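re the bet — no i am not wrong, look at it urself. input seq straight from the record:
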Amino acid sequence: QVQLVESGGGLVQPGGSLRLSCAASGIIAGLYHMGWYRQAPGKERELVARLLSIGSTYYADSVKGRFTISRDNAQNTVYLQSNSLKPEDTAVYYCNVRNIVTSKDYWGQGTQVTVSS
């Protein structure tokens, strides 16, 4: 059974940084893409960053140069380092893993990130 547990959200001032973590259990790292989505109030959930099983990355244009996704395969953990945060980054951030064979998605419970002075 796949389980994802997120941590690291919180309140931060504009220009600040946060590091989100997502610990995954029940997966084999090489068989899953790992990523982060976010959903702001009144908006659709959007892909922020994805780390493919082969190691390549994707970033939404809005976060390029500010966010970095990485993973620790030994710990089955994916991270999102978020720098130079802006008020528009305020959202609930969700960890996602996708099975590369079945394309089945699994989601974490979400962690709130609020960027405000």
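see?? The mean pLDDT is 95. told u. also The longest strand covers residues 91-99. so pay up
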